[in-house]
Amino acid sequence: MRKLLFALSLAGMLAGGAVAYLSGITQPPLPPAFSPAANPYPNGIYANGIVESDQPSGENVNVYPEVPGTVKQILVAEGQEVKKGTVLLVIDDSVQRATVEQLQSQAQAASTLLQELKAQPRKETLDVAEAQVVSAQTALKTAQDELDKQQAAYDLNPKSISKDALDIAGNAVATARANLEVAVKQRDLTKAGAWIYDINNQERQYNALYKSYSSATALLSKYTLRAPRDGVVLAISPAVGSFVSAQGAYDTYTQGMTPVIMLGSPHAHLNVRCYVDEILVPRLPSPAKMKAQMSVRGSSVKIPLEYVRMQPFISPKIELSNQRLEQVDVRVLPVIFRLVKPKDLNLYPGQLVDVYIGE
Predict the structure, then answer these.
(1) Domain membership flag for residue 141
(2) 354: which of 129, 189, 231, 342 lies 20 to 30 Å off by Cα?
(3) What CATH number corresponds to the domain at position 170?
(4) pLDDT digits over 114-129, tens only?
(5) pTM for this prediction
(6) How far apart, in whole angstroms, are the C-alpha atoms of residue 112 and residue 110?
(7) 256 and 272 share a domain?
(8) What total of structural domains would you count in the chain?
(9) Domain for residue 333, yes or no?
(10) DSSP letters for 328-355
(11) Alpha carbons 249 and 272: distance in angstroms, whole number
(12) Do 275 and 359 lie in a common domain?
């Protein structure tokens, strides 16, 4: 029994020694997945950069609707190349279209009435006025003949015709003559056509309605978003049925408003917008001597950059963090460089990169 315990103790000591020896062996470190970014310039400065499309000014083309409404149809896809004028998105325009049709009908009615006034006198109306003149002339002749007869009888024998009957016949002639004058004036008024003031007033009403119709038609076209220039669709924020406005579309994740559609440049070049800390701004070399190199995060790729321009305005660093309520006011100077997009590298607008700037 003692020999067995001694053997087990000896085996335990040997096993413990082996474990201690193996545990003490130092394992060689694993090679890095990629070489970390290194400053290639003796006095180079570091800056955060963000890849963006090549634009003469600004970052990307952000498309916003000028009218609010519900998205009815999206006719493009992300990554698609579009030409200037291509329909990108359609907003529900049923109410505005009905308004346009209503104003169009009102303008057409006003135009028809204006043409009617300008076309006066109407032949049929003038014929009626002429017939009324002829009728009044006939009535006057009849009344005059009756008066002449009674006057002749009265002159032969005053007792044959009463004075009252003679006066009534005279009054009938006067009435018939007045009716003839009214008929003649009515015919002349009809022949003269519409009053110029009525025509001018109707013309102004037509112009006002037509301008309202044109304005409503122009507003109707705003419900269709078209590409303002050639480009590539980088992002589409809303889905069909989402509500959009002049502030953009609501982003569920950031809980903020974003552009409805973002367009980039279709060119083979990309820009890199670097944000240089204001403390390092005095160390920036002159544009004529400025050189830069970009390192793509997650890879060992290093790409030379070409200086394009500098925004001579130092602004708060909200472009990268998107936090507009930062407690620390960090200010940066935007410097824009250009690069040729490598064919064998996935590089997209919005990607963060490391940039070193030197002489």
Answers:
(1) yes
(2) 231
(3) 1.10.287
(4) 999 999 998 998 899 9
(5) 0.67
(6) 5
(7) no
(8) 3
(9) yes
(10) S--EEEEEEEEEEPPTTS---TT-EEEE
(11) 26
(12) yes
